[in-house]
Specification:
mainly alpha, two-stranded antiparallel ribbon, two-stranded antiparallel sheet, 11 helices
């Protein structure tokens, strides 16, 4: 199947352009706000409309700032060392989930201090709202022809145009251009978005021990990212970072999985202690 080339710009008015990638972020934040309103009335204590709006604002700010800083530090630290202003040139692209997650956690700590709510209750409330945004972000990657997958041994996949694979190979000729590749952003949109959202939404519909939903998010995302990275071609300037086959995305996701397991064990143990 040939990659369906899509113009990354929806419309432009002079120097101002509306891009699909930016629209995916806006839709993701809107989804968090809308889903949050659906969950707010079922939570104890209830969330007010103002609290929810502030939560989305804090989260969006943390996701964008953390995502950009994380991308630069995790994937382009050498560029930053030679050009510190690169950090602020966000129009050149580059966001990282793991940096965005750290940014959101810092933002939630500040939000907890401001509202008097416990940090873990905030993350339990927020966790089921996020996967839709993650899935939309991956759709933005796909539309931008970013993150083309590894060559498909089975022949099931897509043939990407040269401008996409040039990012993972200095030359785009012959086998590189004609190879059938896994559409890894679609795999990640499905697992990190649709599957993770369904799992978390269903589990969180009934009361759970404090920290359990947050733990499930970390375990779910960490596991799905470790799996789908096997179909994603690593960045050319980084390659595999461990044992000749572990990508940066997998290396950063393993601590999430471990943290999720530990948090889940703490949550269940704490619930048992309170039940005695």
């Amino acid at each position: 199947m040939q990659y369906p080339q899509i113009d990354p710009i929806i419309l432009s008015l002079g120097p101002v352009a509306l891009r699909w990638y930016g629209l995916m972020y806006l839709l993701g934040f809107a989804a968090v706000w809308w889903l949050g309103h659906r969950r707010a009335t079922t939570q104890q204590p209830h969330w007010t409309r103002d609290e929810l709006s502030d939560l989305v604002f804090y989260g969006a700010l943390g996701a964008v700032l953390g995502g950009r800083i994380g991308y630069v530090l995790f994937y382009n630290a050498s560029v930053l060392a030679n050009d510190p202003l690169y950090l602020f040139r966000i129009w050149e692209g580059g966001m990282a989930f793991h940096g965005g997650l750290l940014g959101v956690l810092v933002a939630m700590l500040l939000f907890a201090r401001r509202t008097g709510r416990s940090f873990i209750s905030i993350t339990d409330f927020l966790a089921p709202l996020c996967p839709i945004g993650l899935g939309l972000g991956r759709m933005g990657n796909f539309i931008n022809m970013e993150l083309p997958g590894r060559v498909s041994e089975s022949g099931v996949g897509m043939t990407y145009p040269c401008d996409a694979v040039i990012a993972i190979s200095p030359m785009c000729v012959g086998a590189w251009e004609s190879a059938v590749r896994h559409p890894s952003p679609l795999y990640q949109a499905f697992f990190e978005g649709a599957v993770l959202f369904t799992l978390l939404w269903l589990v969180s519909r009934t009361p759970r021990p404090a920290g359990f939903v947050s733990a499930l998010f970390l375990c779910g995302y960490g596991s799905f990212r470790l799996l789908t990275e096997f179909f994603r071609e690593p960045d050319a300037h980084i390659g595999f970072v461990l044992f000749g086959g572990v990508s940066m995305g997998q290396l950063l996701s393993l601590p999430l999985l471990i943290a999720g397991i530990l948090l889940g064990l703490w949550s269940l143990q704490n619930a048992r202690g309170q039940a005695r």
